[in-house]
């Protein structure tokens, strides 16, 4: 056996595990042993060589696990959004907050003077029609023109009935803000 124990022969066998099994301290072979022309306990069956126990294999495995964990942490920290909120204060502006799975928060604030309107837009995405809420920003040079369209709830993608409720609330606040800003 050249210094190998029975357990290392069974564990390092390159063929499928279904072809060998250990029973009561001895090994039983199926058609694989006869196909190779040797028994399972003879040295070097089917081109098998003893496993290399050098540290390079474990270092590669450790590096692969580390890279995978770093990728997962990066995904949770920068990509996976758990919650999105929209806060409108009629005299100040609109605040959009995205909370990531890692606990990180990203906040965007738009002054009310820059907001032209809030609308529900529709788009074709992956062979279906989706609806999303957008904030239309005024052009600083020409106030009656739109300079930018800012989508809201990009990750959550709420249904149309939810968007309609949010839209109506936004329109009430914007109408109240316009009424107070035009009155002396």
TrEMBL record:
GO CC annotation terms, alphabetical: glycosylphosphatidylinositol-N-acetylglucosaminyltransferase (GPI-GnT) complex
The keyword Transmembrane is annotated on this UniProt entry: yes
Keywords: Membrane, Transmembrane, Transmembrane helix
GO BP terms in the entry: GPI anchor biosynthetic process
InterPro entries per UniProt: PIG-H (IPR044215), PIGH-H_dom (IPR019328)
Pfam families documented for this protein: PIG-H (PF10181)
Residue ranges of every copy of the Phosphatidylinositol N-acetylglucosaminyltransferase subunit H conserved domain listed in the record: 85-154
Transmembrane parts of this sequence: 57-78
Pathway annotation: Glycolipid biosynthesis; glycosylphosphatidylinositol-anchor biosynthesis
Entry similarity comment: Belongs to the PIGH family.
Protein name (database record): Phosphatidylinositol glycan anchor biosynthesis class H
Native species: Marmota marmota marmota (Alpine marmot)
Organism classification: Eukaryota, Metazoa, Chordata, Craniata, Vertebrata
Gene that specifies this protein: PIGH
């Amino acid at each position: 056996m050249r210094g190998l124990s029975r357990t290392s022969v069974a564990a390092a066998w390159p063929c499928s595990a279904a072809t060998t099994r250990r029973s009561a301290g001895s090994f039983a072979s199926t058609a694989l042993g006869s196909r190779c022309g040797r028994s399972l306990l003879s040295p070097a069956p089917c081109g098998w060589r003893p496993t290399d126990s050098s540290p390079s294999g474990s270092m590669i495995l450790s590096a692969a696990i580390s890279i995978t964990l770093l990728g997962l942490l990066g995904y949770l920290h920068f990509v996976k959004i758990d919650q999105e909120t929209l806060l409108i204060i009629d005299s100040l502006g609109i605040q959009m907050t995205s909370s990531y799975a890692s606990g990180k928060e990203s906040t965007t604030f738009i002054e009310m003077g820059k907001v032209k309107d809030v609308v529900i837009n529709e788009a074709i995405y992956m062979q279906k029609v989706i609806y999303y809420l957008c904030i239309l920003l005024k052009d600083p040079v020409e106030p009656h023109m739109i300079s930018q369209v800012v989508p809201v709830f990009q990750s959550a993608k709420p249904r149309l009935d939810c968007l309609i409720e949010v839209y109506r609330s936004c329109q009430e606040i914007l109408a109240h803000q316009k009424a107070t800003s035009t009155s002396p």
